[in-house]
From TrEMBL:
This is ArsR family transcriptional regulator. InterPro entries: DUF1833. It comes from the Bacteria.
Length: 94
């Protein structure tokens, strides 16, 4: 049984941890849902620390036009990531 099969069958110690990588220019922010920071290996083999925060992620619906909008909410208590996101939205060209 693969790890993914076992994860979805709920018969092992593995758990799903929701993570989010936010790239704004050269800055990269790694966030995870929960109360404790998580160190994990990304798809490309980098080991990074995901900072714990309150967040909610709504996965995009599948559609035929090729666009998928990810919706998320986060409570970034120190304001670093939320401020960076707001600044990026305000600075983008129309």
């Amino acid at each position: 049984m693969t790890i993914l099969n076992r994860l979805y069958a709920s018969s092992g110690p593995e758990v799903i941890i929701e993570t989010l990588q936010i790239n704004i220019g050269d800055a990269v922010h790694y966030l995870c849902k929960g109360y404790e920071d998580i160190t994990a290996t990304t798809d490309n083999g980098d080991t990074v620390t995901f900072i714990a925060c309150a967040m909610d992620i709504a996965l995009p619906a599948r559609n035929a036009d090729g666009t998928q909008d990810l919706k998320f909410a986060l409570c970034n208590i120190d304001g670093v990531v939320s401020t960076a996101i707001r600044n990026a939205i305000n600075d983008r060209s129309p």
